[in-house]
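Side project, low priority. Logging it here so it doesn't get lost.
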Amino acid sequence: MKLVLRGSYPDGHLDDVRRRLTTDWRIEPVDPEQDKAAFATAMADADAVVAMSWSAAQPAAPRLRLLQLPGAGYDRIDFAAVPPNATVCNVFEHEIGIAEYVLAGILQWETWFLRLHQGLRRGSWADSLYTRGPTHGELFGKTLGIVGYGRIGREVAKRARAFGVTVRACTRSPDRRDDHVDQIAGMDGLDAMLPDCDYLLVACPLLKSTRGLIDARRFGLMRDGAVIINVARGEVIDEDALYAACRDRTIGGAIIDTWYRYPGSRDPDAVTFPSKHPFHELDNVFMSPHSAGWTVGLWPRRWTVIAENMNRLARGEDLLNRLYEPGGAPPD
């Protein structure tokens, strides 16, 4: 069977896939940005492809049985254009790194660790108990609201509870309860949850129903000092409303990893601001370049799951993380 890896991957990733395959696969890495003709030829007899996007402009893939996403998000997949016999699966494994990022951001917000570090490096004791400086916060006793209680939400809740945090969640599947969340409700409970949250984590998928979910009206329901954290997709939070809420300090601020604008190339030296608004000028916004889950353990875990799906496909077994199956309805 033939597996096409679409795009470019760092050295060693191809070996990672091969080591994890226990069935007979011929692997062909192709980057259509470099050679469109080679990609079209490769797809003509591909049984499976690893790719993060799919559109009607893709070359014909009449034998394709599996479109395997190497990430969790599927907002770049045109399900109507997927070949009729193909199943679409995604992969996660980023929840560990993202959960650690979220807790690090919250702890930094409460403890002022970088502020204290930078101050003392200048010889300043202004924030010290010896000068009766201002006291910093504690995470203990705070309330964390989570929008979208999936893999990321659960990993964050598990860690937050260890700090004495009350965890509430709103999700499309409120029946999936566990011991890490104190209160869980459907998405129709979001408005009622917002006034109680010191921190609000946005961790839901980007769908028609979630685009602009957190808008100006919902920012108005939040506490004055509340902090919003986005590790989902930028567009789940209304861009204008988020900037206005942080600029005008109607909320405490934001910790943002996912954005509205991205570089047009993979040049690490390219200068691209992530929004039409100058978030970088606001001192109550912590910014990171969509890197929360980009950890040393991410790809080994992901390739393990991807290879398992290839093995299952070759053996005719049920696939993991199915998003869409032939004849079915795409996720809404």
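Brief comment: The chain has a mean pLDDT of 95.
Revisit when time allows.
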